[in-house]
Write a structure and sequence with these properties.
The protein has helices at 2-10, 38-41, 44-48, 52-67, 95-108, 117-121, 125-134, 150-162, 183-188, 193-207, 227-236, 245-251, 259-264, 289-292, 297-321, 340-346; strands spanning 15-17, 30-32, 85-87, 139-141, 168-172, 217-221, 240-241. The chain is mainly alpha-helical and 369 residues long. Helix 8 (150-162) runs parallel beside helix 10 (193-207).
Length: 369
């Protein structure tokens, strides 16, 4: 973590060339190399019983745990282990263990396969290993759903709330800026953030933990771009919002000054979203040294700071226009919708009426459509 943070501040990429023999025939021979070799810091016996994915997870979790000012297990650090959970995503799990044991089986027979092969190669092994290390007894989950994981995030959060296992839930809607998956997934999987917030708020209210001092905090992300978006999310019941793509744009992504480069990629400023490709003309999401040199981290940081200030001022202005002294005082009564669809999703009245489309349908009460 320390070296990663220092490199971020310095605008220095951690991506290096792969010089190992096994990478010689690969079409792409660059990768982000870890600064700490897990086998050098983990106990030798423990490291031998873990796939590299779990080894890396252990090192990262240990550093994050220490950075939070915690030592030992959750209980030893003054936390309630029954309220601490682990969510550690993995795209494939212990693939190194899987491949090596497959080769062993082909060359030497099944009896030579390691008895630890299965627990080492399981995708959930990193989450389980971390939960054992920190004494997290609430849950240990491994989400695996590519980039557009809004539905799963909402369902997982609500489930943990209903089970009384979580103190904070992050809701991420389908408007997130990912493009690193199939078009059919982007266009047809997930629900709008506008529809996700009322569902999460309702679940919290049913549990009696919404906006209480000792309740559950609801954080909303996905499609938050302006102060108006912040104000609407807060009015619908969010305790806080998070941004992602908007910060990249503030840094300089999709800037008109790189129009020719965007055109060469078959797109234009304002439309490029292939952040995963490493071809970012603005030099932000890339491992190309030539492109990365285009980013001035000091100037980019100034623009992000300005963006956050404007975001805050816009949300405050809307709150004052609604007669509220603080953005946290905004409520659904401050909202109306301009279309039937948005009114139904946000569960607020259609402008000029007191009608909330669909209200009462779930409970069987009169009204609705």
């Amino acid at each position: 973590m320390p070296s990663t943070w220092e490199s971020l501040l310095a605008g220095r990429s951690g991506v290096r060339a792969l010089t190992e023999d096994w990478a010689a025939d690969l079409p792409v021979r660059i990768a982000g190399r870890v600064a700490v070799e897990p086998t050098e810091v983990l106990e030798r016996v423990k490291a031998r019983r873990l796939d590299r994915s779990s080894q890396l997870a252990m090192v990262a979790a240990t550093q994050a745990w220490a950075d939070a000012g915690l030592q030992g297990t959750a209980d030893e650090g003054g936390l309630d282990g029954d309220r601490v959970g682990v969510a550690f995503a993995s795209g494939i799990g212990g693939v190194t263990t899987l491949l090596s044991n497959y080769d062993t089986m082909l060359e030497k027979g099944p009896r030579r396969v390691s008895p630890l092969a299965v627990p080492m190669l399981m995708p959930n092994a990193p989450a389980a290993t971390i939960s054992l290390m920190v004494g997290a007894r609430a849950f240990a989950s491994t989400p695996v759903s590519a980039c557009a994981s809004g539905n799963e995030a909402i369902a997982l959060g609500l489930d943990q709330l209903r089970l009384g296992r979580a103190d904070v839930v992050v809701v991420d809607g389908m408007q997130g800026g990912t493009a690193a998956t199939q078009e059919v997934f982007i266009e047809h999987v997930g629900i709008p953030t506008l529809a996700a917030i009322p569902q999460a708020v309702q679940a919290l209210q049913e549990l009696g933990v919404h906006r209480h001092a000792d309740g559950v905090q609801l954080v909303v992300s996905g499609g938050i771009r302006t102060g108006a978006d912040v104000a609407k999310a807060m009015a619908l019941g969010a305790d806080a919002v998070a941004i992602g793509t908007a910060a990249l744009v503030a840094l300089g992504d999709n800037a008109p000054r790189w129009a020719d480069d965007y055109a060469a990629l078959g797109t234009a400023p304002g439309y490029w979203d292939d952040y995963q490709d490493g071809t970012d003309p603005a030099g932000i999401c890339t491992q190309d040294d030539t492109l990365a040199a285009r980013l001035d981290p000091v100037e980019g940081g100034r623009r992000v700071a300005n963006y956050l200030r404007v975001l805050t001022m816009e949300a405050q202005t809307i709150a004052r226009a609604c007669g509220k002294a603080h953005v946290r005082h905004l409520e659904p009564e401050d909202l109306v919708a301009l279309t039937v669809e948005s009114a139904a999703m946000a569960r607020v009245p259609l402008a000029g009426t007191s009608w909330i489309p669909g209200a009462g349908i779930a409970s069987g009460a009169p009204g609705g459509w």
